[in-house]
Specification:
The structure holds two protein chains of two kinds.
Chain A: H1 2-9, E1 14-19, E2 22-26, H2 32-41, E3 46-55, E4 60-68, E5 83-91, E6 96-98, H3 107-118, E7 121-123, H4 148-155
Parallel strand pairs in A: 2-5, 6-7
Antiparallel strand pairs in A: 1-2, 3-4, 4-5
Chain B: H1 6-11, H2 13-20, E1 22-28, H3 36-40, E2 51-53, E3 62-66, H4 71-83, E4 89-93, H5 96-99, E5 121-123, H6 130-145, H7 151-157, H8 159-170
Parallel strand pairs in B: 1-2, 1-3, 3-4, 4-5
Classes of the chains: A alpha/beta, B alpha/beta.
Amino acid sequence: MLKQELETMFDNITIRMDKKNQLELSITKDGIMSVLSFLKNKGYDHLHVISCVDWIDDKQLELVYILSAYMKQDVPGETEQLNILLKTRIGRDDPKYITSIALFPAAEPYEREIHEMFGVDFQGHPRLTPLLLERDYDIPPFRKDFDTKQYVDNVFGSVPSVEGEDDS
Amino acid sequence: MDRNQLKKWFQNPVKMAHKYSLHVVYFCTGCGIIEIPPSITARWDAERFGIIPVATPRQASLFIIAGYVSLKTLRSIIRTYEQMPEPKFTVSLGSCPINGGMYHDSYNTIKHLEKYIPVDGMIAGCMPRPEAIFVGVTHLWTLIDKDMADGYKRYRSNYSAYRANQEKILGKLEWPPLFPIHGEE
């Protein structure tokens, strides 16, 4: 079974069966690439999304890789399709991580988005240019300490009304 | 045709022609696009009011901005608006272009559309029903009758202020000014 194989292959891995078909793996940050390539060879070759969570109290950012398989697996003991959530945590101050484009080319836009929304610098990514945002932000806007209300008051509130337009 | 309006037709045929054949370019930024297909097709049939959607802004006289305006779409809205031939009228749909609506504290959505381009009418609601679009258009008719739908004239006269506001939010714009800017050279 996949669970036992993962436990024997990797140290520091915690495995939890969330729901009936959802497997949650947590590992320290240096083990992600080996787990990803192991899972890819097992047939989990579809990267749904890379997501990021800001745990501001722990001073950590959590990266979540969500994988599944296109084809039904011929792993003995597996009766149905699994979704795999692979989680790791990296430091929040000046966050750096390795890109996973070499394994999953589909990771490119997700890593660009995390780069501009959370400020994670993916080493080896070919183009970490802005994807969605137009302006430069001091703090990346999806971090928890980004005060949206204050930002709106500073930036949009300071735009004057055009003369004779309205009375505000 | 209403016989009472014959006098108006003879007095100012150009204005009446503008009024009753509004060619619309829809800017579908957000949820507003949901209301547009039923209102231009058989269910509510906007052609009863002389509204017909056109393909490009260069053929249009009415600009309907449906939904919230993010910074990236604001750039396209300004370009679209500047391409339209005069006379041109702008109507915004929904509460987001008025004051931000439910995006009042969003980091990437502009709050007051009338600070960046002139808006002749605003239809409030989240989202307005297709009937509200027609009520707004009939209000626009009375505004055109009374020469109060003069957003394109205000854009011309206050262009430097509008351009300054646009550049304040979007940074340096990559296209040249449409009208001469006061205070330069």
